[in-house]
Design a protein that fits this description.
- The protein is an alpha/beta fold.
- 42% of the residues lie in helices and 14% in strands.
- The chain has a five-stranded mixed β-sheet with strand order 2-1-3-10-4, with helices on both faces.
- The protein is globular.
- It starts with 5 loop residues before the first helix and ends in a 14-residue tail after the last helix.
């Protein structure tokens, strides 16, 4: 279930697949999620079900994703007009494919959910104690690649970390079984996977990177720069309807979960409501968003994200923040307050 692997966007994709670009006709939009339907995706399901897209003159087709890296490549290839992806995936992609440049038009996750996660009894009661321990994560994944930057911010001796590589699907099981002392990954994914295999919640310890010195942006609505130039009103309308969907979800979480359940019979409403609550509190309604409003863009933070990812992936020609982030498609500030 692990999502958002930068390794997908940092490898040969950027060997772009030969996908015929999707033609946007009027307000027709194909939108790719980052993963199978989860709680936070309810903002777009409600935007569709409640007619927010329709009222904005949009016809939106929402497809599940297979990881943020895959979604970023599909949008950059032209298969989708827009997508929801970890914005870090765009740093190397844009550097390698400037003609297919992705732009963040709404930072839904003001903070990344990437975290260091362990269990009680593993000898790690604060991030610094990870030094000398065995940490697990897929090789090339974002949480592992940018760990050195987190380590520097959190005072961890990164040179003493013993890494164990595994498939993303095995990460949480290996932590639960004691094969590694801790893992890095997305908090709301690993946390509930551990709960799912019977780990008591009070045994789980976690330190999100963004709350411990490495304050990076997380997932965003993205689109190709050339498409945005031709379809500015479609982009702005999509963002506005998405925010209306988020407000509807915040106001009625059970209703949002029920709406997703109608589309995905195997959807666990109770678990996903809890996953959304964690995502809401740690990544969406952050202190920054409560002060400045949904989607508020701080270019200094954008520059930090680009620098950290460029260093992690050895990008010699990183894109500028101005080429990768914009707030021009956001509603007026007064309409974004929460």
């Amino acid at each position: 279930m692990q999502r958002r692997h930068l390794m997908l966007a940092a490898g040969a994709a950027l060997a772009m697949p030969a996908i015929r670009p999707a033609a946007a006709q009027g307000g027709s939009v194909r939108f790719a999620l980052d993963w199978a339907l989860q709680g936070n995706h309810g903002m777009w399901i409600l935007a569709d079900d409640k007619g927010f897209f329709r009222d904005a003159g949009l016809s939106v087709k929402i497809d599940r994703g297979f990881g943020s890296g895959d979604t970023a490549v599909k949008v950059a290839s032209g298969a989708y007009e827009m997508g929801f992806t970890d914005i870090s995936t765009a740093v190397k992609l844009n550097a390698d494919n400037p003609d297919k440049r992705l732009v963040s038009i709404y930072q839904v996750f003001d903070r990344t959910a990437t975290a260091l996660i362990t269990l009680k009894g593993r000898g790690i009661t604060n991030p610094r104690e990870a030094a000398g321990k065995k940490l697990g994560a897929p090789e090339g994944e974002a949480s592992r690649m940018i760990f050195p930057a987190f380590a520097q911010a959190a005072g961890i001796d990164a040179g003493k970390i013993n890494w164990t590589s595994m498939a993303a699907s095995l990460r949480d099981t290996m932590l639960a079984q004691g094969q590694v002392d801790a893992v890095t990954g997305f908090l709301f994914t690993t946390y509930f996977n551990l709960v799912g295999v019977g780990i008591p919640e009070d045994n789980i310890l976690a330190w999100p990177y963004a709350e411990n010195g490495l304050d990076l942006y997380g997932s965003a609505i993205v689109a190709r720069a050339d498409w945005l130039e031709k379809n500015p009103q479609v982009a702005a309308s999509f963002v506005k309807a998405s925010m209306l969907g988020l407000r509807a979800l915040l106001a009625d979480v059970p209703g949002g979960m029920a709406a997703i359940k109608k589309r995905e019979p195997l959807f666990d409403e109770a678990l996903e409501a809890r996953r959304f609550a964690m995502t809401r509190d740690r990544s969406i309604l952050t202190p920054n968003v409560r002060q400045h409003g949904l989607g508020y863009l701080d270019m200094a933070r954008a520059e930090t994200l680009i620098r950290v990812n460029a260093e992690a992936y050895g990008v010699k020609n990183p894109p500028s923040a101005a080429s990768m982030f914009t707030d021009k498609f956001l509603p007026p500030a007064a309409d974004r307050q929460v």
